[in-house]
Amino acid sequence: KQHHMSPRTQQLLYCDVSNTVQFTSKMSHANDSIHDEAQDDRFLEILMVSSLSTIPSCVFLYINGIMLFTLRSKAVFCETARYILLYNLLFAETVQLVLSQVLFLLAADRVIMTYPLCGFLTQLANLTTTISPLTLVVMSVERYVAVCYPLRHADIVTVRNTGVSIILIWMFSFLDVLFRVLLLLEVLVEELQSLQMKNYCSSTSMFVGPISHAYSKAFTCFVFTSAGVAIISSYIGVAAAARSASADKASAHKARNTLLLHLVQLGLSLSSTVYSPLLIALSTVVVRVVFVRIQTLVYMFIFIVPRCLSSLIYGLRDQSIRPVLMFYLCCRLRLSVVKVKSEVSSSA
Length: 348
What we know:
Blueprint: H1 7-70, H2 75-78, H3 81-108, H4 115-148, H5 153-156, H6 159-190, H7 210-242, H8 249-271, H9 275-283, H10 288-317, H11 321-347
């Protein structure tokens, strides 16, 4: 026998199905709305973080670019050892600023890269990170020789010897990068199933094995400890020489201030090594919105600001660089203002 539903039962069944469809449609619409709001919030977050870091980076890159151009604009800058070393330091810090900003933006946009591409960017950043403290050591030694051995300074600190020291700095830094790459390749071949990364690109994410992590710690400790000892020893030597009757007091005082500046710069460079551990500690105690804001501020003060201090401090302190630097900066600004005024007057 076939069972026939009554009209009342059919009507109730139709109402239940209709209500279920309407409820499902509302839930789907609500989920779509929540998803759209989440995407909008994420887009605003990325836009805010990118703007807060990119605008200062562009300003500082412009200042560093003018400073690098200034150090190549006069023959005296190209033929004096300390200016050649300063150019090498500023060049390394400018490249490091560019790479840091690129890696930060890629991480903010949550771009997942391959190990080879990420390895190229991070190892290039490691190369310039090592060059900075080593260049500060050579600059400190140059000031020590200038104060303690003024008669032999011209024979010891020559353009040729300065060029050789810069080549040795780059070779030492390159050997460190080569060793890191060999450690990475060994782990990639033996353990990893895919070249695609699971997280965003950073120096920490390239520690794919305990050996590479231990090596990075040991090498960083060795470089910065050695640099600190060298700079402090140079400062003590200059301070001791300044007490002698034959020493040039003004030159010794200026050299001591310069060495203190080198020590501060070394500390700022060292502060970048605590960036990742600091963020890991903060991520466990603060909510995501607060963490993103703190991360941006920490990144700006650890990576962006120190990379521009060298240009500003050396450019404003040095009596030979300052007028040339101010000329190029102010001349560019005046030309921009004159151009804008001419365009406004012509349009009117």
